[in-house]
Amino acid sequence: MYLLLLILLLSYLVGSIPTSIIVGKLVKGIDIRNYGSGNAGGTNVYRVLGWKYGILVILLDALKGAVAVVFVARLHYGNIPFENATPFDDFTLIQIMAGVAAVIGHVWTIFAGFRGGKGIATALGMLMTIITVDMLVALAVFIVVVSITKYISLGSILGAMSVPLILIIRENIFHVDIPGYNVVLPFTIAICILILYTHRSNLRRLISGKENRINLFGKKSA
């Protein structure tokens, strides 16, 4: 049990690394949370510091989720300290738990007063290692939506919501045997609910028509 708690703690700490705040301090000496939307995420860095730094932060945030799943989870050995009722082997289950801990760390980072980002990039990095095909399709949904609407928040929301839908379609219509489908599906639905929660202010602005659009290769929203 202590080893599992250590893995979850380390994964949380990896996810808690405030990449957007660090980049903001290094590039302009600012706390990114005091500018733009006030969010400590890649999208806000994109708006305030430009697309190059925005993409850098998004990639680093995704890397946090992947590191937790691919490296931190490997500290586990032996059997898990509870009954595994899932179709996953013990190690894969530990990977999922480590990934979730990293996402939680990103959203509620201990290094920045528990005010982090919205979890999209870190969840992407985590899920890419578990359901790669489905996440690539969801990433395509994100890119198409953002390219057409210029709303990164809308692309993030629809991309996240598409993941369980893609799983359902592949498993039940195309009859692809997705390992651990009955566990992965509710898990991705739970991640979607978390993403919707962290994007609640964006949803309100989208509904009211006040959400900012992104100039894909500039600093200002249109």
Which key terms come to mind for this protein?
mainly alpha
Describe what you observe in this structure:
The protein has 222 residues and is mainly α. The chain has one domain. The chain has helices at residues 2-16, 19-28, 42-49, 51-70, 90-107, 120-128, 132-149, 152-172, 181-198, 200-208. α1 (2-16) packs parallel to α5 (90-107). It is globular, with a radius of gyration of 18 Å. The model has no long low-confidence stretch (mean pLDDT 92).
Helix and strand topology:
Blueprint: H1 2-16, H2 19-28, H3 42-49, H4 51-70, H5 90-107, H6 120-128, H7 132-149, H8 152-172, H9 181-198, H10 200-208
Helix pairs in contact: 1-4, 1-5, 2-3, 3-4, 4-5, 4-6, 5-6, 7-8, 8-9
What order do the SSEs take from the amino end to the carboxyl end, as H and E? HHHHHHHHHH
Strand content: under 5%
The shape is globular
Q: Please bin the fraction of helical residues.
A: 55-70%
How many helices? The count is: 10
Low-confidence stretches: none
Counting copies of identical and different chains, the oligomeric state is: single chain
CA radius of gyration is: 18 Å
Biggest sheet descriptor: none
- Tell how many strands the DSSP assignment holds: 0
Number of spatially distinct domains:
1
Distance between the termini: 51 Å
* SSE class: mainly alpha
